[in-house]
Amino acid sequence: MAVVTSLSRRTVLRGAAATAVALPLGAAALSGCSRAPSPEEVLAGRLVPLASAAKASAAAARRLKATDPRHAAVLDQIAAIRDEHEKLLREEVSRLHPESRHLIAEPSTAPTAYATAPSSAAPGSATAAPQSGQLDQFIAALDADAQSAQQVAVTATGFQAGLTASVAASITSLKGLLK
Question: What is the pTM of this model?
């Protein structure tokens, strides 16, 4: 036996009104989930690795200073300048797309090529080779940072192009202090 329910005109009109409001809102909500990133978000995303690298190289310079007293003053200077690079890049990321600033990585606290490693050398033996190797690795990392900043600079415009070009040029100059 089939049950037939009768719908009043008022019930049909309420349903139609609710559908007329719900469909566009639902479509807007669904399209909001799959939106493409804005140009500002894309640019902020390209600056995030530069800020992370600046932070990491500042920390590496401080760690390397402990094993290379001959370059201590220069490494202090490099750390201070790379800290400033990180600050400026972080500010620009925050201005362009505030949510992206949280993507800037903290430098690892794990031992790296720049960290002081326990020496297995006999007391009184020369330790210049490990320091030289660490310094060479640090210089290579700075070179990679400069190239990354330069790549962003040539594709960016306006302030961001100038900022990243300045960072690239600064890093290149800093490398020269270590030779």
Answer: 0.70
Helical H segments across 34-71, by residue range: 39-65
Chain segment 111-168, per-residue pLDDT in tens: 443 333 333 333 333 334 445 689 999 999 999 999 999 999 999 999 999 999 999 9
Burial of 61 (0-12, 13-18, 19+ CB in 10 A): buried
SS3 content of the chain, % helix, strand, coil (to 5): 75, 0, 25
Which residue has tokens 């306006």? Answer: 158
For residues 115 and 62, give the distance between their C-alpha atoms in angstroms, rounded to a whole number: 9
Q: Which of 135, 8, 168 is nearest to 68 (CA)?
A: 135
Question: The tokens of 96 are what?
Answer: 């362009």
Distance CA(115)–CA(106), nearest Å, equals 16
Count of residues in the chain = 179
Three-point CA angle 24, 27, 32, nearest 5°: 125
CA distance 59 to 46: 21
Contact of 132 with 156, CB cutoff 8 Å: no
**Quick count: other Cβ atoms within 10 Å of Cβ 50?**
27
